TrEMBL record:
It comes from Secundilactobacillus odoratitofui DSM 19909 = JCM 15043. Keywords: ATP-binding, Cell membrane, Kinase, Membrane, Nucleotide-binding, Phosphoprotein, Transferase, Transmembrane, Transmembrane helix, Two-component regulatory system. This is histidine kinase. Residues 144-362 form the Histidine kinase domain. Residues 77-129 form the HAMP domain.
Amino acid sequence: MEGIVTVVILLLVNLSVIVILNEMIQTNPGLQDGIFIIKRSVFIGPTHYQLWSWENIFIVLMVIFDVGVVYWRLIRRYHQMQLRHIIGELHYIANGHFDHRIPFTLKGDTQRVVTSVNSLVDSVIASIDEERRIEKSKDELITNVSHDLRTPLTSIIGYLGLIEDHQYHSEEEILKYTNTAFSKAKQMKSLVDDLFVYTKMRQTDTPLSIATLDVDQMMEQLAASFELEAGEKGMSISVETPDEPVHIEADAEKLGRVFNNLISNALKYGEGGKHIALRVNPVSDDEVVISVENDGQKIPRAALGQVFERFYRVEESRSKATGGTGLGLAIAQSIVSLHGGYIYVTSDDELTRFVIHLPVKNGVKIKNQQVKPTH
Ligand code: ADP
């Protein structure tokens, strides 16, 4: 339609130009002479065929002009149609069809628009999914926390209720009740404390107080501080470091928390084990690997991928009176990743190893080579 209308308009324009030019030539003898001279001077062949009559010139120019205008109008209309199509697709997506993408391939800039729109939709969907995941994980966090707080709180209320209702026979019994309530209250406090640290460490902008740290010295101090407890459980702790001192830039207090947790886990869960080893291994100029190993009961294969999840406790640990919150390893993982490193675990009948890769320089992030936990 657009093409036909354009052609009709152009024909009318051509006709009016012809009429105007004709009129001008008829009424202007000077112009006629000029045209005559040009006509005589432009010819081809031995027969002096005169190429140029003014009608010829005019017709050639007009045809070129007309074809140009028709082409330009049609191309413009075609682009408009493509744009309308794209807008239609956009409305379709905006109406909730988020798994739809603009399917057609076009040429040039329009294709770039289509590609950009499709990738924009992809990233919007990805961030909506991420938002939903975070929302869901917050709900789970609240459910877990309320469950874990309710259990000791019920005991506390129960025991204090017995005292309040004078349901005791001796002072000894009161002491027993208050003792239980006290230990349950401490359990609640440790959960709240862990939770506080966990949420703090999850924030990627948590400030670290970075200083140069002597890793060997730190491990020796940690081993010394656990020696007594290990001795009571019939276990020993050894430290293996290279001859050269190993230094890294890190937050000593936060890293200390990580290793404290790993060593106390080794003592708590390494049932039947005899030995805990802390190993320091500078694998390159940029990276140090520190591992905490213990023998004794292994972590079941199915649990290996989950021990770093918050509130996750291997089934057997739940039933035992180890008193954990299931947040220790989640905190350890967050602290290690705040330092730009990564942590993983391997466990078999002989050994359970928690391995930490840390960058030597602060601000450097190490590429995680450990894709899946191994058994
Ligand atoms: P918590 O110690 O509070 O339960 P963690 O996050 O520190 O929580 O540990 C999660 C679970 O991983 C523990 O409940 C335990 O079952 C398991 N685990 C951790 N360290 C070891 C270990 N060295 N040997 C065996 N199991 C372990």
